[in-house]
Structures are given as C-alpha cells and as structure tokens.
Amino acid sequence: MRRQMIALFGSLALLAGLAAGALAGDKGKDAVRKDRDDKADSEALLTLQGHRDAVWSVCFSVDGKWLASASKDRTAKLWDAATGQMTFSLEGHGDQVLRVAFAPDGRRLATAGADRVVKVWDVATGKEVRTLKGPTNWVAGVAFSPDGKLLVSSGADNVVRLWDLDKGEEIFPFKGHSSAVHGVAFRPDGRQIASCSADKMIKLWDVAKRQEVLTLKGHTNQVHTVAYSPDGKRLASASQDGTVRLWDVDEGKALHTLQGHPSAAYTVSFSGDGRRLASCGADSAVRLWDVASGRELAVLKEHKRVVYAVALSPDGRRGASAGEDRVVKVWASSDEAARGRN
C-alpha cells in the first residue's frame, strides 16, 4: 500500500498522520492571514492555516459559499470561502483523507480516505451522516451525480464504484483499469462517468448501460485527475507526465496538450463559464489556461512547495490551491488578474 500511495502523489514519502478522533469544530486552531494586495508575485487574498500536514484536495461548493480541504493529517476541513474562517474540522477517517467533493445542493460533503471508506457529512452541522464501505484499498476519487442521488468513487483496487446514497449501497462496480484509479468525475448531464488511472488511461463509462464507452489514450504516465467542462463537451486531465490535456468527449479525440508544468501536473479545474482552466503541479505553481486556444494566461506562484490541489469557484472570481506546505490559498481569479500575469 505504501508503494501505491507514493505513486499517487509522486515521489514523496507518505507518512501516517495523527490518529482520527471525534468530530471537532475547534476554531481556535486555525488561522487566517490576509495577504497584502501590493505583492508583485501574488494574487492571494487569504491564507488558511489549520492543517498539520500536506493538503491533497480542495473544492468550492456550487454557490461558492464554502470551501473544503482534505489532508494527510486525517481530517477534512470546512471553511467560509469569504472570510477564511474554519467552521468545522471533520474527523472520523482512520487514515489520511485524499479527496473532497460537495453535493450539487451544497448540503453534503463527501470525503475519500486511505482507510478504504467514503464518508458523507452534513455541511450545516459538521456531522457524519453515512459511511460507504466496500473498496479493498485506499479511495482517492469521489464525485456526486448532478442530481445528488448517486456517488462515484475510485481507488487502488482498480475499481470505479457507483453508489446509491439514499440506501448507502453499491450499485455497480465498473472494471477495466489495470492499475489504481486516481480520479473520477460525473458528466454534467449525469449520463457518463470519467475515470483516470495509474495505467495512463482515461475511461468513459455509460451510467445507464453500466459499460465502458471509450478509452482516451495519450498520456505517457499515470493520470491523477479528470474534470468535465460545465457544458460537458470537454474533459481535462492532469498527468505525472507533466502535461494537461483537453479532450473532445463525444469524438474521443485530443484537442490540446497544455505544456507548462516542467514535471508532474496533479489537478485541473474549469471555471464556471468553461472558458478557463486551472492546473497545479510539482513546480509549486498554479497555471491558468484559455480553453479555446490552449494558451497559458497566467502563472501564480503562491506556494513554496508542491501544489497538489486547485479549484476555481463557480462564479470564476476566486480560486483556491493547496499542497505540501499545509496551507490553503484563496486568490483572485478574474480575467483582469489573468491578463496581468504572464
């Protein structure tokens, strides 16, 4: 398992975090720093401090009100996206938390862990409402269906699992990858799931027919994450090979290969209007791209170490990033900021 976890996020040695405890909403342990607006090398608005180890994943709620983060310290945290104040520290996983995802209505949060379970939390109370068991190894990918009734997960047992959230039961296991499945995403119409793997492949699955639709080939190393554009026509992927790729989902062909990260690229996130894409990587940078042309718009150097996670808010006004330095950065993500950074 240790070898697989190292492969998931590059060459870092992943050490065990602190033991998981009961739910705690301790706001005294977090800190928010408002970064100066006159820094020439930064668009950062807030720096959120509270995690005690590397942060693997961040995401915004659909309304942009909340921000969630997942960490090697075995916790997920909920933050007020406007003020940066931590509202809850979600403690319950027995090992590091690898991914977070909000439900479409913003009322629930799913967390995927190295303890082989997926947990669902109530955002308003910070309480755990369901634990999904079944994977036989760590779980690294998780996503809600657009209607919030289904959930998809993936992990080191090479399986993509579809869940009924009301019943808390597995509906179907999609099998086809030959190695760990790092990430999953639901197409906005809910009819398709995308998955990416250490086997270098991206697979598209038909939800209703329970079968593979297409395999996208092109990456030369493991693929860490995938994300659909808001209109569902494009798919973005980030890979250990250092490239970010844009794909036409219906035709199954590559549209652009975005080259900017000199080494591993870990996460991708579309803006709410689908015009821009953010990526992050081992070069400690967040890069913003024009989706139509594949042109790099800006390079944001907010972190001093590896950046594992990036997310753009649905309204496109802000972005968040996190990584090995244990902090979550919230930064301006406007078109004006992008044009001013090259």
Give the topology, please.
Elements: H1 2-8, E1 31-34, E2 44-49, E3 55-60, E4 66-71, E5 75-80, E6 86-91, E7 97-102, E8 108-113, E9 117-122, E10 128-133, E11 139-144, E12 150-155, E13 159-164, E14 169-175, E15 181-186, E16 192-197, E17 202-206, E18 211-216, E19 223-228, E20 234-239, E21 243-248, E22 253-259, E23 265-270, E24 276-281, E25 286-290, E26 296-300, E27 307-312, E28 318-323, E29 328-332, H2 335-339
Antiparallel strand pairs: 1-2, 2-29, 3-4, 4-5, 5-6, 7-8, 8-9, 9-10, 11-12, 12-13, 13-14, 15-16, 16-17, 17-18, 19-20, 20-21, 21-22, 23-24, 24-25, 25-26, 27-28, 28-29
Total number of beta strands? 29
Give Rg in angstroms: 18 Å
From the spread of the alpha carbons, the general shape counts as globular
Low-confidence stretches: 1-7, 9-30, 33-42, 336-342
Number of helices: 2
Characterize the main sheet.
Answer: 5 strands, antiparallel
Q: Which percent bin holds the helix content?
A: under 10%
The span between the termini is 40 Å
Keywords, separated by commas or semicolons:
4-stranded antiparallel beta sheet; 5-stranded antiparallel beta sheet; 2 helices; Methylamine Dehydrogenase, Chain H; 342 residues; disordered C terminus; disordered N terminus; single chain; mainly beta
